[in-house]
Every structure is written in C-alpha cells, then in structure tokens.
Amino acid sequence: MDVMSADRTIREVRAEDWPAAKELRLAALRDPLAPLAFMETYERAEARPDAAWRERTVSSAAGGPNRQFVAEVTEGPGTALVGTVTVLLEEPGTEDFLGGRVEHRQAHLVAVFVRPEHRGGGLAAGLFRAAVGWARGQRGVCRVRLFVHVDNGRAQAFYRKAGFVQVGVVGDEYEMEYRAER
Hints:
The chain has helices at 18-30, 34-37, 42-46, 50-61, 123-136, 153-161; strands at 3-4, 8-12, 67-75, 78-90, 106-114, 144-149, 164-170, 173-178. The chain is an alpha+beta fold. The protein has a single domain (3-178), classed as Aminopeptidase, CATH 3.40.630.30. The protein has an 8-stranded mixed beta sheet, with helices on both faces. Helix 1 crosses helix 4. The radius of gyration is 16 Å and the shape is globular. The relative contact order is 0.16. This is GNAT family N-acetyltransferase.
C-alpha cells in the first residue's frame, strides 16, 4: 500500500531499503526519548551485523507476519526514509513482550519514529493510517494496540489524536487500543 503526494510516500518497506531502514532505526535510538520509547539501546543495535538488518527488512518486505511501514520524502536528487512504524501480529496463546498472555489475534504497533525535522507535517498520521489499515485487513485481528511509557507525554498525545484510548497499565507502560472508526 503506497500513499503518495508530490514529495512524500507512505509505503511498506522494501528489501532493498535495509541500509536506510537500519540508519533510521539507529537515528530513532539516538532520540532523547529513546530510553522511554524503545526496548533496545543504540549500542546494541549498532553492533548488530548487516546480515541481521537485511534479514529484518527482507522478512517484513517478503510478506511475513509483521509489516514495517516507512515514510519516504524527496530530498534533493533522491529520497530518504524519515519515519517508520512496525505492526506485529500477536497470536492467541502466545506471550507478548511484557509477559502478558495474548487472548485473541491482535496487532501491536511498535518502533514508531519520525525524524524531528519532519514532525508536525502529517507523516506520523499517514504511517498510522497505513499500519492500522493493514492490521485491520488481516483475518481474525480483533484489535490494534500499542504500549507507551507513562512519562512519554509527546507520544501519548499523538496516539490519542490518532484514535487510541488507554485501556490498561502494565508496569510503567500504558496499554492503548485503537477505537476510532475512520
């Protein structure tokens, strides 16, 4: 699914995007709020071999159970990836990353990031529309959720604006569920 305008595109990641996807993830992990937003450090991610980055991107691009969406903008003579969100499908009977039991087939949004110089222009909203739309199109998915740290007010405000409501608290994370009908 590609959503395009003259100078920007929201689309699924492609296999050949792996170097740009790697660089975008590393940029996300350097963000001042990264310790609240991501369960990985810059140092750990940066040490990962290129083969792991390729596999991560190729798996999403090849139609595996998870999808990474990216925001691509035209910059000078080329393009650059400036935002991302990943959708993980969670199956009943499995355990989620916080140790909770998954009761129903559901989608979980993770790894949300837009470069600071591109925030406020609708890219994050476009990424979320693509991710939620894809998730809701998957057979048997009964809900779309995400977790956000209780101290990450910037992200909480965006998620509420995007149609998510708080449905629970797990440790220092709010669980939010998509409720808007768009």
